[in-house]
Structures are given as structure tokens and as C-alpha cells.
Amino acid sequence: MPADFTAKLAVLGSRECAEYYRCSLTAVTRWRSESGILPHKRAMPFSHPQRRAILCVETGMVFASQGHAARWLNNVGYVGAAASTISTAIGEDRRAYGCSWKHVDVSPAREAV
């Protein structure tokens, strides 16, 4: 184990130490345990992409996509209902297939920190 390992580890981190000392990450992990430094838990990158769904205002039904809404409409009697027509209706703020359509946010709520 290099003499300045613990100082470099605090600044660089394990992967960068492996590159700095030109050794494997396994060697750096072994050096960490030999020096009594506990492995740290790294937070995995996590994002909450905005998820939008389609709402039929009159019925209150929410669909995951225009395609799901079109398939439901085909099942209830609007033969030939198309996702593109629903998408156009949303963009132009007009009715299609007897319903007003709009996007709604269904992303998981984030708590304030």
C-alpha cells in the first residue's frame, strides 16, 4: 500500500485512485480494508423523469398513452379511433371522440428537503 494512499483516497475516490496508482480497483479495495477505511455507500444516480398521461376530462379516465386511449375507444365502439387523432386534439385543445383530452402529470411526488 502506498504511503499517501489515505490522503489520495479522500481526494480522488477509489476508481480515480486505481487510475492514479495504475492498479486494479480490487487492489484499492484491499488497501482500504487494510487501512481500516470502511467502504462507503454511493448513491446511485436517480432521476424522476416527468411522466405524462392522457386524461379524458368528461369520464375522468386516465390512460398511459394516446395508444392506450385509442385501444380503449376501439373496444367501446369508436372503431378506427387513432392515437394520432387524440394527439392532435390535445395539441389543438379540441374534442375528439366525444371527449376533451389533456395531458396530466403522473410523476411521483417529491418531498421537499
Main attributes of the structure:
113 residues, alpha+beta, 2 domains, four-stranded antiparallel sheet, 5 helices, 15% strand, rod-shaped
Distance between the termini: 40 Å
Overall pLDDT confidence:
79
Count of beta strands: 4
Q: Helical proportion?
A: 40-55%
Q: How is the biggest beta sheet arranged? A: 4 strands, antiparallel
Strand order of the largest sheet: 2-1-4-3
Low-confidence stretches: none
Total domains? 2
Q: In terms of structural class, how would the helical and strand content be classed?
A: alpha+beta
Fold and architecture overview:
By secondary structure, the protein is α+β, with helices and mostly antiparallel strands. The protein has two domains: 5-34, no CATH class; 52-105, no CATH class. Helices cover 41% and strands 15% of the residues. It has five helices and four strands, in the order αααββααββ. The chain has a four-stranded antiparallel beta sheet with strand order 2-1-4-3. β1 and β2 form a beta hairpin. α1 (5-12) crosses α2 (14-21), α2 packs across α3 (25-34) and α4 crosses α5 (83-92). It starts with a helix and ends in an 8-residue tail after the last strand. The model has no long low-confidence stretch (mean pLDDT 79).
